Amino acid sequence: MSNMHADGIGTGRNNSRILDPIFKEVVRNPDVLSNLLKDWIEELKDMEPEQIWQCLDIGDNGRVQSLDTHLFVGKTSFVLDNYFRIRAPGQEEISCFIDMEGQISNSPGYDIHDRMTCYMARMIDEQMSGYERLEYSRLRKCYVIFIMLRPRTNDTNRIKRYAIMRRSPDDPKIGSDDGAFDKVEILEVTVPGYGDVVQEGAMEILKLLFSRLKESEAISDRLTKVYNIHIDKPLSDRMSDLDEQYFEYLEYMGKMKGMA
């Protein structure tokens, strides 16, 4: 059996090597991405997935193209998983920028929210540094979305949204969002567990893709018939390896609980 720990499958480093390339390949599938964005992105919520396709940069290979994910911060740098720009339908105008990260655990040994904040700040800096003259009106909304693929077992199937809210104690609208600072939003999404009940939409898609015990025709049929998502066989085979690891993890956690 693999080297397990309470926050996920195997060691964090091994998980990243296995999950990162698979996660990138999955979310750059335009059918997958358009369905996820429909539920999560304000600018796209009233559009059908087929319409959202028109807002994506899709390459000749049929995959959604990412911007340069290697961003420098002073003398160091970090690499985003996926850095997308979303255009207004049928136009060149950019509507928003999205960073979508696949994270093993929401408890990686440091405060994950600090990392989210750094990514957001760097995205804004990257966007504005592309202009010869600083014009604040050109700022487009930035979304940072962290998808926790192997969250703690008591923290699955959740979406937490963070934005800038009023905090003045003498303001009757304290805690409200009046649109004054509507250019930043952070989403923390924890993938549903195998036994979680989910509604149709983005969370079910994540469950079908990343919380499976084994590949089955029922999963493929639902992805295809309900969401028009097709996973090719090479990728499906690689994801089956994740299924086996996930089963080992569930078995390990069951034994641990039995020993408690």
Q: What is the gist of this entry?
A:
This protein has seven helices and seven strands.
Query: Could you say how many structural domains there are in total?
Result: 1
Q: Averaging pLDDT over every residue, what do you get?
A: 82
Q: Pairing-aware structural class of the strands and helices?
A: alpha/beta
Order of strands side by side in the largest beta sheet? 3-4-5-7-6
What general outline do the C-alpha atoms trace? globular
Provide the helix percentage: 25-40%
Assess the beta-strand content as a share of residues: 15-25%
Total beta strands? 7
H/E order of the elements? HHHEEEEHEEEHHH
The number of helical elements comes to 7
- Specify the biggest β-sheet: 5 strands, mixed
What is the terminal-to-terminal distance?
20 Å
Uncertain spans: 1-13
The radius of gyration over CA amounts to 19 Å
